[in-house]
Write a structure and sequence with these properties.
heterodimer; A: mainly alpha; Four Helix Bundle (Hemerythrin (Met), subunit A); globular; B: mainly alpha; Helix Hairpins
């Protein structure tokens, strides 16, 4: 009962923050609401008993991605004032399409399908199993992800550096 | 116990909001924020299915970690592109970036 109340509060916080992200006129305020959305999602991960993912979410998404987004907003500062509307020419059709898609998803996913839910508990040594799996059974995705990060690092530096003419 | 369908519903609504953000916003960085919202909703789905269908198998956690990694790499490269674009065109509005238009 308490758990369900906590879930409802956390998910309302997350969804309202996400709504402010996509509708607010000032881009910097949108980025701050994105940070609060990420916090809400991390709280949902804790409710799902995936605590390692919750900490990784806070560290990577808020600590790196949201910070990077705020840096990029600062570096393109002229667009932040919010004097004009934040929406482009197809915003109304996008809204209609999104609402239709949302209703369809909610109907099918949440109410139609009988998911094979089990009552099994999360084992206590999940994190050590995760570590062993990342360098054992799933070593190839792990190494490919590290190569991807290296490529992204080099690529981002090359693309964004000042050109000396 | 929280039913699985509640988590899926929250993830679906979050996905649709990110979807709207990608389609309806004018600033390129706002579009990237919508993409990040969609990736977060996918992660919520992955972890909800892991927790309720196969909690003893760490495959769900590994998948979610890889998704976070790929999202970080893609956000970094995307923002580098926007910074370079701003330096070149002095704007990040997608309406005004139509060099290839016929």
């Amino acid at each position: 009962m308490v758990l369900q109340g906590v879930f409802i509060i956390v998910s309302l916080f997350t969804l309202l923050s996400a709504l402010m992200v996509v509708t607010h006129r000032n881009l910097f305020i949108s980025a701050l609401f994105l940070v609060s959305t990420f916090f809400g999602v991390a709280a949902l991960y804790v409710l799902l008993e995936a605590e390692f993912l919750a900490v990784a979410q806070v560290l990577v998404y808020i600590g790196a991605i949201a910070t990077l987004i705020i840096f990029a907003i600062m570096l393109s500062r002229g667009m932040m004032q919010g004097r004009t509307s934040p929406y482009n020419a197809q915003a109304m059709w996008a809204g209609i399409g999104s609402v239709v898609l949302g209703l369809l998803l909610l109907y099918v996913v949440a109410f139609q399908v009988d998911w094979p839910v089990t009552d099994a508990k999360v084992p206590a040594d999940t994190i050590s199993n995760l570590g062993a799996a990342l360098v054992g059974h799933y070593v190839i995705p792990f190494e490919v992800a590290s190569v991807l990060l290296l490529a992204a690092l080099i690529g981002a530096v090359m693309i964004a550096r000042e050109k000396e003419y | 116990m929280i039913p699985l369908s509640w988590y899926l519903a929250v993830a679906a609504v979050l996905f649709v909001m990110g979807f709207y953000g990608v389609l309806a916003r004018r600033n390129a960085i706002a579009i990237l924020m919508g993409i990040e919202l969609m990736l977060n909703s996918v992660n919520i789905n992955l972890l909800a299915f892991w927790r309720y269908v196969h909690p003893t198998d760490v495959a769900g956690l590994v998948f979610a970690i890889i998704v976070i990694t790929v999202a970080a790499a893609e956000a970094a490269v995307g923002l580098a592109l926007f910074i370079a674009l701003y330096r070149l065109r002095d704007t990040v509005n997608i309406d005004e970036v139509d060099l290839l238009k016929g």
